Amino acid sequence: MGETYLGLASLVVVAISVRVWIRAVKRVEIPKNRGGFVAAWLVAAGIGVAALAGEPGWSGGIPAGLAIFASTFLLFTVAVGGQKVGDAAIQVGNTIPDFTATDEHGQPFDSKSLAGHPVLIKFFRGHW
């Protein structure tokens, strides 16, 4: 019965950490030091492995397996998706740098077309 609780606990740790991560992403407040998230995902994976080692049955095995998969996936994406949080960000009132990109309709977009107009541009890159 203890292995079932371990499996559930591992999934809860992953779920809480993902919820906090998504809240940070929505607020554009991704921390420079992601050690807390990495530690939570490592702990969740470890708890999940411990649960599976004890043969918890379906009620603990499925949550443990999901937690191990999710933790491994998140750890991998953090490792390979090094999003740099730099100090050279554009500040409010600065002139927009020249760039070209693709808009939501797949058409080319040039920042020069915005000259003389106040504009709010928000770039988002999901970290995972």
Write up this protein.
The longest helix is centred in the N-terminal third of the chain and has 25 residues, at 2-26. The protein is mainly alpha-helical. A hairpin with a 5-residue loop joins strand 1 (100-102) and strand 2 (108-110). A two-stranded antiparallel ribbon has the order 1-2. The chain is built from 3 helices and 2 strands; from the N terminus they run H-H-H-E-E. The model has no long low-confidence stretch (mean pLDDT 83).
Please outline the helices and strands.
Blueprint: H1 2-26, H2 35-53, H3 58-80, E1 100-102, E2 108-110
Antiparallel strand pairs: 1-2
In a few lines, what is going on in this structure?
The chain is mainly α. The protein has helices spanning 2-26, 35-53, 58-80, and strands at residues 100-102, 108-110.
